[in-house]
User: Fold this.
Amino acid sequence: MRNYCLVLLSVVLISFTSCEELANQTMPNDVVFFDLKKFIAEEVLRLNKLNPQVEKTTRVNDNTETKTLNLEDFQSELKIFQEADINKLAWIDKYTADSVFVGNQISSISYQAIDDKLTTRSLKINLINSKVAKVEIKTQASSIVTNVEKHLIYEPDIRYSILSKQKTTGSDVNEVAIEGAFLK
Assistant:
């Protein structure tokens, strides 16, 4: 009886571990959705090489500060975009996809979450001549105490924008906005 309980416990633990690993496992080489993680990684490498100046405006509620910066590492600036990637094995059937074509060329790809529990609610990619012109992401995470909504926009060589609204039970909404404009 004791051995049976140990075997049963082992199977249960392995099952939970396997489910968690499946949920976090990224897609194999055949990526089902737009590969946001790869796109942003390529942009980080490109921007780190170009080293453009960025006019960065940060707003926390009603307080605003603007600085012109030479950023050394765009990974930290754009990490939040990579974190919104939806290419996970467990999410294959959790998003609807829609594409818009102009002539014979795709001009936009949109993904919408079907499952309310997913943090990345929507992902839209606009393309011009098969090149990414704009990425727009909406995320939402909720708990009993707090609700956080984020609206992210990335336009290569133009700007990136992060707007975060957080509502905590018993307090006002806190807004944080970061706008980085690439200077020519």
